Amino acid sequence: MTNDIAGDSGEQFGLGDTTQSFFFSPKAPGPGGIIWGVGPAVLIPTATDDLLGGEKWGAGPTAVVLKQSGGWTYGMLANHIWSFAGEDSRADISSTFLQPFLSYTTPDAWTFSLNTESSYNWETEAWSVPLNFQVAKLVNFGSQPVSLFAGARYWAESPDAGPEDWGARWGMTFLFPTAR
């Protein structure tokens, strides 16, 4: 698959690095139905191609705040990651991630979402601002709930030699609900 992830460097296909967030949150929503959580975020260098990851370990704070009402969900997810270990020849990481989101879920488990997954690279002083529209459907494979999704992405802002214009995304998320 040829694309512009690395300019004219050739082909890239594989997994990128993983950012895992952990949230500490009250069991019940707060006043006004606000749900929130704070905790650490960890960057794990899991990229399968040098062009798809930073080859650095990182960590920093993360927070989420949201409200759900009548099928609507809206809120914001944010984190900041600083690198602390990894390949010395690769650039250090200092990156802020901001994800405001709005979605509506129908009674028959279709979800329509609009968000941005914006990031600011403090090392290069560059923004990445993709606008995303997504449609998802909750289904069951046997007893396993799975969310299938597809969507369109438009790059409102990207760094030099970064992605441009329109793109598509699709995937699946395995869900592991806990009993209440």
Topology pattern, helix = H, strand = E: EEEEEEEEEE
Number of helices: 0
Number of domains as seen in the coordinates: 1
Distance between the termini: 44 Å
Percent helix range? under 10%
The chain-level mean pLDDT equals 91
Radius of gyration: 18 Å
What is the molecular shape? globular
What kind of sheet is the major sheet?
10 strands, antiparallel
Number of strands: 10
Give the class from helix and strand content and strand pairing: mainly beta
List unreliable stretches of 5+ residues.
Answer: none
Strand content: over 45%
Briefly characterize the structure.
The chain is mostly beta strands.
Question: How would you describe this protein?
Answer:
There is one protein chain. The chain has one domain (18-174). The model has no long low-confidence stretch (mean pLDDT 91). The radius of gyration is 18 Å and the shape is globular. It has 180 residues and is an all-beta fold. The chain starts with 17 loop residues before the first strand and ends in a 6-residue tail after the last strand. Strand 8 (126-141) and strand 9 (144-157) form a beta hairpin. It is 0% helix and 59% strand.
Characteristic terms for this protein:
globular, 0% helix, 180 residues, mainly beta, ten-stranded antiparallel sheet
SSE blueprint:
Layout: E1 18-21, E2 34-44, E3 56-69, E4 72-86, E5 94-105, E6 110-116, E7 118-121, E8 126-141, E9 144-157, E10 166-174
Antiparallel strand pairs: 1-2, 2-3, 3-4, 4-5, 5-6, 5-7, 6-8, 7-8, 8-9, 9-10
